[in-house]
Amino acid sequence: MRASAARRDHTPGHALDLAAVLGPLRRGHADPAFRRDDHGVTWLAANTAAGPGTLAVHRAGTEVVGRAWGPGADALLDGLPALVGSEDDDSGFTAHHPLIADLRRRRPTLRLCSTGRVWDLLVPSVLEQKVTGYEARRSWRELCRRFGEPAPGPAPEGMRVPPTPRAVLDIPDWEWHRAGVDLARRRAILAAARVAHRLEAAATLRGRPGRDLLRTVPGIGFWTAAEVAQRAWGDADAVSVGDFHIPSIVGHALLGRALDDAGMLEVLRPYAPHRHRVIRYLEGAGISRPRFGPRFSPRDYRAI
C-alpha cells in the first residue's frame, strides 16, 4: 500500500465550484465514503481496478490539487479532470425557457462530475430505491462501516471504502436485515455484485448504451441506471424517471403545475441531450416541489 501521498495538479479550463460539482457524490452528511473538512478539502474513499484508494481534492488559486493514497491512488488521480467536470461538454446547450436561461447565466460554474467507476455508485443508488433518503443513507452507512475497509492514508476518522462486490456477496442474511435492507433491494445488489466486473464497461459505453447495460441486472430500472450514469460518466441526458420529486420540480418551475413522468419528459424533450443538466440547474437554484402534506414516514425493516 502506498504510504506517502501521490499528487497531481489540474488547471480547469472553466469556472469551477468544486463543492457543487462533487456534491452529488455525497450520500448524506455522515457518508463514510465522502467528507468535506473545515479547510475546504473534499475526501473521497473509493474502489478502483487496482484496489482501494483515498483522494483528497482542494483548490489552490486557479489549480485543483489532488492527493491520493492506497493501491488505487494513481487511478484516482488519473480521473481528477473528469471528476471536477473538465470533460463535461455543454457547448450544445440551448435554453428554451426564460428561467433556465437565467439560471444558466447565474450559474456558469455548473459542471457534471464523472468518477469513471460504476460499482461504488450502484450500491447506494439501489439502496435509494422506493424508500426515504433517511432510510437509504442509514443503510449505506451500516454497510460501509461494517463491510468496507478503512480508507487508506490520513483520511478523516471514520472514513471507509465502500464494500467490494466480494464483500457484499459474503454478507449474511441477518446482516442485511440489521442494515435495514429489504429483500428486493438486497437481491438487486447481489445480482449486480455477481457481474460487477462487466458493469464497469457502462462507464466506457456511456449514454444510453451504458444505461441499458446497467438495466440488464434484475432490479435495476430506469431510475437507478440514470442515478449511476449521472455520476459515473457525467451523463447530461440521464433523467431519473420514476423519481418522487423531480417531475413536480420541473413542472412547477417551468409550467407552474405538477407533472407526471410522461409530462416531464415532454417538457424536457427539446433539451436532449442535456435533460439532466436542466434538472441540475433547477436543483442547484434550490427549487423544490411544493409540500402539501406530512412527510413520508420511514419504515424500519430491522423491526420486521
Written overview of the protein:
One of its GO terms (biological process) is base-excision repair, AP site formation. Keywords: DNA damage, DNA repair. One of its GO terms (cellular component) is cytoplasm. It comes from Actinophytocola xinjiangensis. The chain has 304 residues and is an alpha+beta fold. The protein folds into three domains: 84 residues; 113 residues, Orthogonal Bundle (Endonuclease III, domain 1), CATH 1.10.340; 39 residues, no CATH class. It is 41% helix and 11% strand. A five-stranded antiparallel β-sheet has the order 1-5-4-3-2. A hairpin with a 2-residue loop joins strand 4 and strand 5. Helix 12 crosses helix 13 and helix 14 packs across helix 15. The chain starts with 5 loop residues before the first strand and ends in a 20-residue tail after the last helix. The mean pLDDT is 94.
CATH topology of the largest domain: Endonuclease III, domain 1
Biggest pleated-sheet summary: 5 strands, antiparallel
- The termini sit apart by 42 Å
Q: CATH superfamily membership of the largest domain, which one? A: Hypothetical protein, domain 2
Give the radius of gyration: 19 Å
List keywords for this structure.
16 helices; Endonuclease III, domain 1; DNA repair; 41% helix; globular; 304 residues; alpha+beta; 3 domains
Describe the structure concisely for a colleague:
The protein has helices at 18-22, 73-78, 80-83, 98-106, 119-127, 133-147, 165-169, 173-178, 183-194, 196-199, 202-205, 207-214, 222-232, 246-254, 261-268, 275-284; strands spanning 6-10, 34-36, 42-48, 51-60, 63-69. By secondary structure, the protein is of the alpha+beta class.
